[in-house]
Design brief:
This protein has 138 residues and is mainly alpha-helical. The chain contains seven helices and no strands. The longest helix is centred in the first third of the chain and has 21 residues.
Length: 138
């Protein structure tokens, strides 16, 4: 099911990031640098918007930035395929694997870690808004 949320500023950030990463993996390394710069800008924007650096959307962008920085050295750049594909999944289907991973961090969940929680986290359908909202409904 397509979930093109073009009225949401976050969706536009992710779309531009996906385009930049795609440019990067297609042999233009500057795409990675611009994707990192845009993610830093997003991180600042959402920190100011939330008024809290521990807000869930800020955490997602922080860990996403960490993944982009981890992949920056030349021998590690093959890793950019992961956020490239994942960001397109976010843009097209609203499935954000990074948000799902961040939701599993101890300070973001009340439920004990289990295989059931892992399955529910990664196999549940995308929801509008925060992935955490979708889990609290269960």
């Amino acid at each position: 099911m397509l979930m093109l949320e073009y009225k949401n500023i976050a969706w536009w950030y992710w779309l531009l990031t996906a385009i930049l990463l795609t440019t990067g993996v297609l042999e233009n390394g500057w795409g990675f640098i611009w994707a990192i710069a845009l993610t830093i800008f997003q991180l600042i924007h959402f920190s100011v918007r939330a008024g809290n650096i521990t807000a869930f959307p800020v955490q997602v962008r922080f860990w996403y930035l960490m993944l982009l920085l981890l992949a920056l050295p030349e021998p590690m750049q093959w890793l950019y395929w992961i956020p490239c594909i994942g960001t397109w999944a976010q843009v097209i289907f609203a499935y954000c694997a990074m948000a799902r991973m961040v939701s599993l961090l101890p300070w973001n969940r009340e439920e004990a870690f289990s295989l059931s929680l892992l399955a529910k986290t990664f196999l549940s359908r995308p929801v509008r808004g925060s992935v955490q909202q979708g889990f609290t409904e269960r």
